[in-house]
Structures are given as structure tokens and as C-alpha cells.
Specification:
mainly alpha, elongated, membrane, transmembrane helix, HpsJ-like
Length: 273
């Protein structure tokens, strides 16, 4: 076995072991503080370890590539089938991860479903509460009086402005005045009777109620749509990734243990026949 091949094989094995150990430490530290019964903790922890799930997979590739180089160069003197073999522990670790990620798949989907339902319920409750507050506000005589006072004040200001042609022209030519306000002023100038209709729409109990209800319900729809999209992405991205990782780790672990003779029907049993 050439020195370069020996160094490469050792380096790959060492890097693989370090990656696996660092992943184990990472999985442990991410769980702190442990709150197993908290759904949000479960969601966060599952998402984080699934995001890091490829690292041990790369570690396994490094370890077995190192052994492959040693075997091809005639430098692998380890005894297949021995529990002292690093490959046994790597394959056992892969099998355990396969089971863990398989269990996380339905657990995560169920947690996403429950969290989505709870979030939508909270959004609906907040919207209903806002509508109840609006109804209470509209039934308050003081509030109705304030709306009436604001309506009369604005009507007086508009009437004075329309009576003063100079101020009106100045407002229509002022670039700082929004175009929609200029259009309203022009309409009021051409037909002063529209002022009452405008004020009834904008500064009346019914108009205020309709605008606020529209705002509340639009906000509710936006929040519900955002929540549904977010939880759908979370379910698909983390859930499918967990299932794929489970398949990969299980395939590597079980096939490796069987081929190396650790499981019944493996290479060691066939060789003894």
C-alpha cells in the first residue's frame, strides 16, 4: 500500500468519524432545553435535525471510501464480522438513524397538522374579537356623536373651500395634493350636492362599519393564506426530507450489516456453508 493511499484512507476514516461525532453532539445540544411534550419544540427540533441529516450520510461515505482504498491496496487487515470493526458501528449508527428519521416522518406531519389547526383557530378568534369590539364601538353613543361632529366639521371645510375660488384653484394646481383628492374637489365643484353623499359614505356609522369589516376580513384571509402556505411548505420540505433520509440510512445500514455477516443470511453465514 503506497504512503499516499494509506494517508488518504486514514484521513477519510478520521474525517468520517469526526463528522459522525460532531453530528451526535449537535443533535444533543439542539435538544437543550428538552421539552418533549411541547409541540413547537418538537417541530423546531425535527426541522433542525432533518436539515443536518445529510452530514452523517457524507461521513459514512468517507469511512467506507477509506476502507475501500485500504482494501484495494491490500492494507485492510480488519476482521469482517467483528464488533470491534469501525464499519460495524458506522452501519449500526446508520440503521438507528434510519429508524429515527422514519419515526419523525409521521410525528412531524401530525405536529404540522395540529399547529396549522391551532394557528387558524387563533386567527379566527382574533378576527371575531375585532368584529365584536367594532360592534361595541358602533353601539357607543359617544362614538356616534364623534362621527357626527367630524362629518359636520369636514362638510364645513369643504363648503368654505368651494366658496373660495382662489383657494380651490390653488388646491387643484398644488402638486402635493394627491390626484384622487383633486378629482373629488373637481367633482364637488361641478356638483356640490355630492358632498353629502361622499360624507355619508365616509363619515357615517354604516360607512365606518363596512370599511372596518372589510379590513378585518381581508386581514384574516391574508393571515390564513400565509399560514396555510407556511405549514404546507414545512410539511413537505421537512417531512419528505425525513422520509428520504430514513430510506438512505436504512438501506446503507441493513444492507451493510447483512453483507458483512452481522445479520442472519449475510456473507459470513454463506461462507460457512
Amino acid at each position: 500500500m503506497t504512503p499516499q493511499s494509506s494517508i488518504a484512507a486514514i484521513a477519510l476514516k478520521v474525517v468520517g468519524v469526526v463528522l459522525i461525532l460532531s453530528s451526535i453532539i449537535d443533535y444533543i445540544t439542539l435538544a437543550i432545553p428538552v421539552q418533549l411534550l411541547e409541540r413547537q419544540w418538537q417541530l423546531g427540533y425535527t426541522t433542525q435535525i432533518v436539515d443536518r441529516g445529510v452530514i452523517p450520510l457524507v461521513a459514512l461515505v468517507f469511512i467506507f471510501t477509506g476502507y475501500w482504498i485500504s482494501s484495494n491496496e491490500g492494507g485492510d487487515r480488519s476482521s469482517p464480522g467483528s464488533i470491534a470493526d469501525l464499519r460495524f458501528w458506522a452501519l449500526l449508527f446508520s440503521t438507528v438513524l434510519g429508524v429515527i428519521y422514519l419515526l419523525l416522518f409521521p410525528l412531524h406531519l401530525n405536529n404540522v397538522r395540529l399547529e396549522r389547526s391551532a394557528t387558524l383557530t387563533e386567527i379566527a378568534q382574533q378576527a371575531n374579537q375585532a368584529e365584536e369590539q367594532l360592534r361595541g364601538q358602533l353601539e357607543n353613543p359617544q362614538f356616534q356623536q364623534e362621527i357626527g361632529q367630524r362629518r359636520e366639521a369636514l362638510k364645513g371645510q369643504l363648503s368654505q373651500l368651494l366658496e373660495d375660488q382662489g383657494r380651490l384653484d390653488q388646491a387643484l394646481e398644488n402638486p402635493d395634493v394627491p390626484d384622487d383628492e383633486k378629482q373629488l374637489l373637481q367633482e364637488f365643484k361641478d356638483n356640490p350636492g355630492q358632498i353629502d353623499a361622499f360624507l355619508d359614505e365616509r363619515l357615517s356609522t354604516e360607512g365606518f362599519r363596512d370599511r372596518r369589516l372589510t379590513e378585518i376580513r381581508t386581514r384574516r384571509q391574508d393571515l390564513e393564506s400565509e399560514a396555510k402556505t407556511r405549514f404546507a411548505k414545512l410539511a413537505v420540505q421537512t417531512g419528505i426530507s425525513s422520509l428520504l433520509l430514513s430510506v438512505a440510512y436504512s438501506a446503507i445500514g441493513w444492507s451493510g450489516l447483512k453483507n458483512m455477516g452481522y445479520l442472519q443470511g449475510g456473507r459470513r453465514k454463506r461462507a460457512g456453508r
